[in-house]
Amino acid sequence: MTDKSIPSPASTPASSNASVETVMALHKSVRIAITAQCLHPCQVHLDSLERAEAALRAEVSRLATGRQTPLAQEDVEWVVNDIAELGVRIGQQFFWLYKGDSLVYGKQPDEQAQGVVLNHDTDPPKVIHWRPVFKREFGECCHPVNYADLRVCGHPHRIGTVSLDDSDEWKPIPAALPAAPGATSQGVAVARPDTGETNVR
User: Fold this and answer.
1) In the chain, where does DSSP find H-type helix?
2) What is the tens place of the pLDDT at every residue in 35-71?
3) Which of 145, 27, 116, 171 is nearest to 105 (CA)?
């Protein structure tokens, strides 16, 4: 016998903003639901409880450490849409580069039709399409616009550049793998690509 009021493991993941207290409250509700529905616990209910408890223990552990499962390289795909915007695809989510931010289409009900996203800049609105980026379609790497060239002749002949002096928001890129226990960022030499200087942090 099954009952839809009993949460299944697939329906119990907490969001990244959930607290440990919220997860433990859910844990308690699972036990209460199963006890109420089955005065003589059968193996089906016991298995459901064990799976739910395992999922909740894993979530509590993740929340306690403050870490999320890192994405693999193949989890992120560079894409372009049919209005020539560069973006990334992660699962079924699409984020488009727009003035330094991530633009998401289709968040409003009137931006969707039959499960696809519409471009409201066209009349009538048309479906927005995407595909993977071709090799070197955006260059070997996607570089900034060279506005100095653009101002001189209207056509940039060289790639744009950046400098560590252009902002106070520069940060070292963290390693892909977790640091070894007890490791610290102190004393790490960070080379500046624009000047060749080496700063110790």
Assistant:
1) 20-37, 43-65, 147-153
2) 655 555 555 566 777 777 787 877 777 666 665 678 8
3) 116
